[in-house]
Here is the input.
Amino acid sequence: CASTAHKQPVLISDDSKPIWVDRYELEDSTHLFFTGISTKYAEERKALKDAKYDALAKFLDYCGLHTKLHEKYISQVHGSTANVLSATNKIETQLEINSEALVGQFRIVKKYLEVYSGARGKFYKVYVFASVPKTEVARVKTWQKENDLQKIARLKSLNDQQSQIIIQTKEELNGVQQQLEQLTFLRNRVTILSSENNKLITENKQL
Here is the structure.
């Protein structure tokens, strides 16, 4: 007979999904709002971390910060409060942020939990509603500009070092070339002197 098809986890929680999960104002006069959504986890705390990071990543994306710089920004600017942990199972390079962690003025103001029942037990999916003052956008952009300037400075320094190495190498090659020319000159002189010496020896024998 045919094998039993793999069953997807079934939603067992009764709470209705709040309207902010799918429909919310992106901003008001002073704040921006982002909804973070986790994948399903066997532990609620991991689902919460995933949802928080998802909301935070959306905010940093909104600020124009490249995904590859998210971790660097959080660890450098908010290292004392961000509590950057090991990678999650969702994306290996993704950050985990604990439930108390705050990045700048980034705040979780609402949370919604879905509970699923699967073949291997319960699974949790978390939705979070985060707010962040619009002034935080300028802070991120300022950091990004400084990071770009530092990168440019590092590249310039590297170029300067390479240019210095090229100049030094040319000087060394010129020195080697001069030495080779001197050796060639000396070898030719030895050949000429040897020839003249042999001629004198021959003439002396004839006397």
